[in-house]
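INFO batch 0412 | record 1 of 1 | parsing
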Amino acid sequence: MPPVAATPWPTTMPLSQPPDRPAMRCAALLLIALSAPLLADECEQLPQPSVTFKRIEVATTQNTRYSYKSLTNIGASLARPGQVVLGLTRGNAVVKFATATPAIIDKSGRWECISPQITISIGFAPMVLYVAREFPAGSCAYGEIYEHELRHVKTYQAHIGEIEKDLLATLNTRFATGGPWRGPVGQKRTQLQQELDERWLPYIERRIASVDAAQALIDTPEEYERVANACNGEIRKTIARP
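INFO prediction complete | emitting tokens
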């Protein structure tokens, strides 16, 4: 049988890769990745976002210029029908936002990252304690009415302290976690201010207004009766005069 001629090996490489080529390529890519420097996130240069609360504290002003009839008219929305108002405490709720937004803008000038730094000031200002002018300072009746109204003042002050911790936790969760905000230049600042004005300002005002429930616990029928009968009936006799 004549010998079979050997098939010559092709002079060009086949299109398919040799079995060990993928592993070699992965190793090369891994080596390149490990040897390349890691790029730092420029936004990390910014301070962390933060929320800070400040208490607005003002001295309580005393007012004895109004008669009990005038105070009854002023406090009509708070008093029960037929009730005479001998003293009144009024606190104007105040909420103020102050923001700083340090930023880093990329080289294109189109994108930025900002770090919201929010300061929220809350309190009651002014705070005015009224005692009807029919009960002069230094009298027994004045002392009874004043002490009753002072309980309202302290309730206003305590209420701010009670809600502050919860508000701080809520707003920290929203604004102070997750690092800097990123987006087109100017967009995040606008978003921040809009959210504070439209969402969080009404929310904080509602939380402050919830003090009314605590104030109502002071103005019970029993307390009114006690004050009216104090000082050997001096208060009741005064308001019974024509």
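INFO post-check: The radius of gyration is 36 Å.
INFO record closed
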